[in-house]
Amino acid sequence: MADTARDPPPEHTDFHELEDGEEDLFPEPTATEEESQPASLPAEDISTNSNGPKQDSLFDDDPEDLFAEATEEVSLDSPERDVLLSDGPSPAITPITPPTSVITPRIGHAHDDMFTRSSFDEIEEEEGGDSFDIHISVSDPEKVGDGMNAYMAYKVTTKTSMSLFKCSDFSVKRRFSDFLGLHSKLASKYLHIGYIVPPAPEKSIVGMTKVKVGKEDQSSNEFVEKRRSALERYLMRTVKHPILLKDPDVLQFLESSELPRAVSTQALSSAGLLRMVNKAADAVNKMTIKMNESDAWFEEKQQHFENLDVQLRKLHTSVESLVCHRKELSVNTAQFAKSAAMLGNSEDHTALSRALSQLAEVEEKIDQLHQDQANADFYLFSELLGDYVRLITAVKGVFDHRMKTWQKWQDSQMLLQKKREAEAKLQFTNKPDKLQQAKDEIKEEIEELEGKVQQGERDFEQISKIIRKEVSRFEKERVKDFKSIIIKYLESLVQTQQQLIKYWEAFLPEAKAIS
Amino acid sequence: MMEEAKDEASVLSVHGDDIKVTEVLKDGDTLTFLIISKKDRHKPVVSPVFQLSGTGEYHVDRTYDDFEWLQQHLFAQEDVPGIQGVIFPPLPAKPQVNASAKTMKQLGILGLGEWQPYCKAMETFLRQVAAHSVLCRNKAVEVFLTSSAPPGRQKIRKNIFNRLSQAVEEMRKEGHKDVDEFFQTERDRNLVLTSCTKTAAEKFLDMVLTEQKIAVACGHFSAALHLLVEPGEDADKQAFSRVCVKLSEVFESMKKNMTSVAENNMSTLGLGLDLESRHQEAEKEMLFRRTCKLVELESTKRNAEKAKPVKKLAMEEVKKAAETEFEHICRVAKQEITRFEKVRVEMLQQALVQWCEKQLLTAKESADQFNKHLQVFGGMA
Asked: Could you tell me which residue ranges the PX domain spans (chain B) (predicted)?
């Protein structure tokens, strides 16, 4: 199977090729409102943005401008660019064209040598040699502090051979809110330009309260284990994304021994409330945006994800019920084991008594097998399906952002239209003294709006392109993910049966020896 | 009632150990069982009226009520000395369409609606009756097994053998101290075993019910996976669809496995525990009858002692009669207890061995099946 099949060029019917001499695709500093990076692509028209916390200006002016050599305007689907994509050995991950702002190295980050190439694509190729080899584990949950201010600290260990990192084997301590903070940063940077940012594990006030209060019981242990596993999967999913892996926040999260506390993730904080309000506003907006979808691909995909969402939720419920029954079976088996032991004790016939006691022991062992199987059911399938349900929410989110981007572009266009009309009207004004001033003003506004319109169009095309790539990556990862989980699950099933065979083979002679 | 019972051999014209209940037909609330017994060629045919197929087999239809008819006849043999000392083979409770909770509890594993175990339980009942040296002599047994016409439906008068509803008075008698150590020990043991076995049978049933639930859940999951299959030529989509289809097959295998496990449980150890439980109850009833007789005997002794000279002779007669009857009962009871011990251990052993063998086989088959699936997935591009 061709892992690295390239997407066909996007078939935008209203997409016009940038011609030589027109705008730079990656304009120099003057074009945007942000003081930071020259090539701050999509990001924001910060002034009108309501998508969450203000973007950090991580993107400082960098003398080593990545695109210094790329002065030639290149359209998004020019043959030249395409050639770059398919050059050299195919890396493990489908190369995705990122916004350049993202890969600007942070100050202090020692690996400048990575960024001396003229194109990010080549860098990806280079790192094709430094193939994806990173394993993150979350372990050793430890309660820190007492009472309601207590929290769980987790050890995050990274083992890697990638040159992206300073060491090959290192760990840090992180708490849950740190993970939420990381996700929040990544979401605010990447979601609105079309990257599917893996969602962070969910908060649980009930679960955490139990832990804080110090309840050392089965259910709070299970909660901690469930959370630990979820955090691990979250990080692995995040670093599997070739863009996110290189994000400075991610690197800092994995490597830095001290992390500033992410305060705005608190459930009932003002930031939390603000997020809730924004979400509501977004929902309303979504309902009122009627987009002229000119690209059938997007329409089809959106429908597809809607369906997938529904089906996965059903499956998830189904598995949860299976887990429930499995646990019930474990309880029943334990009870039967006890009753068999009692029967064995009350039995006078020696051989029968012994056989019954053995039976009780076998049943106890089988109980343990049921518990292990229930865990496999849960941690493998239930969590996999849950993760995908949540992931699809993120996918739907990027589709929504595309709609918003389109809307913004349309809005700019409408405004431009209005201004042009107003300009035309000016010609017929009878106040010559104010005329020139008004004319100049409007001319300025029109220029500005023209810029916005073009930016809007570019943003729209960019996000569309990125989403296509992301969806393709999602679909590939999905297959890998499911297969690997299923294989683990099957191994657990085989092992259970083999254990059972051992137990039954041991019991048979006992049963036969009764008389 | 046949009297020439000198030898212990069965007087039935069929082989008692070869009786089969092969089928059950349901018609509303009526259950009709098909019973096949093989003619014993060494025995004369009792009457030419009786049905005989060319194969030397008797095929008869009997309803649950017919079984009860048979049981009532066995209970009603008051002229057989010491009959009260017999541990009567227990008849399974009658399955009902909308059974009450109490009935369901009584039925235990037989209430699951699986007819195979139920037929087996009825079969065991008949075999035990046929194998019982005293009971098999009752004409009703021969009629039941060989007559083409259904046995009479007339109700037999009630007797004390019916399921002893524990009136308060009766309960007090149950704890009455015994004069014989053998029996006191047996009563104590039986008391413990009855409750332990009942509990074990109940817990076992709970396990089986949950296993069935798991099988159903796996089936649902397997079906639901097909909804994830997407049409289209896209390589990734096809790959995912393949994964879903294969996973669906895995869960189908899981369902089969669980269903087998539950069936194995039911047909071997489940039945075994159920039978043992009912048997212990039957022994309990017998011991109770004997205890009641003991109480009665002691009371006649007291009466005889206290009696005024006028009545003394009469009271003495009553006392003697009671003594004789009690002796008969004790004699029969001792034999029964010895036989019972042997039979139940054999039965339990057989149940345990069969159970283990079947589960072992199922586990091997499932391991094979899952391994095959594993290979398929491993080999998937």
From this structure: 1-152
